Amino acid sequence: MSSTYMALGFAVVVCSWWLHIKSIDYRPLMKNQIFTAPVVLIISAKFSMLLGAIGCIGAWFEKKILLFIYIITMIIIFVALLLGVVFVIAFNERVAMTARKELLENIRQYPGDEGVDENNFRKTMNSIQKRFHCCGVDQYQDWFNADIWIGQPYVPDSCCIEEINGCGKQIAANETYGLIYTNGCFNMIQMEINRNLMIVGILAFVLVFVEVISAFSGYQGSLTMSMMTKWLEPYERSNAFTFVTEINTIMTTFGTTFFTWVYARTVLNYRNLTFLLGAGLCIIPTILNLCLALITRKISEEDLPPLSETDVEPAPLRLPNNGVYG
C-alpha cells in the first residue's frame, strides 16, 4: 500500500504542476487568490511520496517508529486536504466577485498600447481575449471606461476578430458586428478556473481516500505485528513479518482485507489453516464437476426414451471353470 501511495503521490504532483503552469495566464488578473490550490496539492503530494517511502522502509525493516510516524502524518495531511477542499468550495463565489471587481479596476487603469504595464495586465488580458474570443469583463463596453481613452468607443486590438494594428479604435459604439468580439471574458475565465478546481478537487479526494485506506492498512499491519510478537514463541518471532505477509495475502484473496488482524491468532495453526484453504480450493472444482455430471445425466435421461424388456438383452451366464467341476 505504501508503494502504491508513493506512486499516486508522484502522479498527483505531475497533474498539479500541469494545472499550476496552465493557470499562469490568469494570475495577474486575480491576484493569485485561487491559484494556491494546485500549489497546496503539489506540496501535499510531495509529502505523500515521502511518506510512502517512509512506510515502505518501515515495513521492510519492521521499524515500528517509522510506521507510527507514517500513520500520524497521514492523518494530519488528510485533515489539511479536507479543510482545503471545504475552503475552496465555500469561498469560491466570494473570490469570484472580488476578482470581477479587480478586473474592472484594472481595465479603468489600462496603460494603453505604449504605456508602462507594471503588472503585465495588458499582456495577460490580450492573451485571454485572443484565446477565448471575448472582449472586456462583462461586455466590450467595459473598455470605454478606461482612463486613457475615457468617453471614446475604443477597445484593444486583441478584441478584433481580424487583428490589425489600430483596429480597436476604428469602430463605432453601435457598429461592432463582425468587427470585434462582444462577449465578456469573465464568465469564460470563471468556467476555465472552475474546471481546473474540479480537477484539483478530484485529485485531492483520491489522495485523501488513499490516505485513509493507507493509514488504516498501516495501523492494521502494525497491530498485527505487535500481536504476533506476543503469541509466537521466541524462536519464531524472527519470522513474524513473513507470517503476517502470507496471512494477509490469503485473507485478501477471500475478501477479508480489513479484518486480517483478527485472524492473526491462526498463526499458531498456520499450517493447518493453509491446508484447509488449499483443500477448500481443491473441493470447489470437484463439487462443480459433480453438479455438471448430475445435470448432464438428467438431460440425457430426459432426451432418451425408456427401454422396454424386449430391448434389454440378458447377460450370458458364466460359470466358474466353464461349468466343469472335478
Give the domain tally. Answer: 3
> Quaternary arrangement of the chains shown?
single chain
User: Helical proportion?
Assistant: 55-70%
**SSE run:** HHHHHHHH
Short note summarizing the structure:
With 326 residues, this protein is mostly helical. Helix content is 62%, strand content 0%. The termini are far apart.
Report on the architecture of this protein.
With 326 residues, this protein is mainly α. It folds into three domains: 2-100 and 188-218, no CATH class; 103-187, Cd81 Antigen, Extracellular Domain, Chain: A (Orthogonal Bundle), CATH 1.10.1450; 232-302, no CATH class. The chain has helices spanning 2-22, 27-30, 36-61, 64-108, 121-132, 186-231, 240-253, 270-303. The longest helix is centred in the middle third of the chain and has 46 residues, at 186-231.
Topology:
Blueprint: H1 2-22, H2 27-30, H3 36-61, H4 64-108, H5 121-132, H6 186-231, H7 240-253, H8 270-303
Task: Describe this protein with a few key phrases.
Cd81 Antigen, Extracellular Domain, Chain: A, mainly alpha, 3 domains, 0% strand, 326 residues
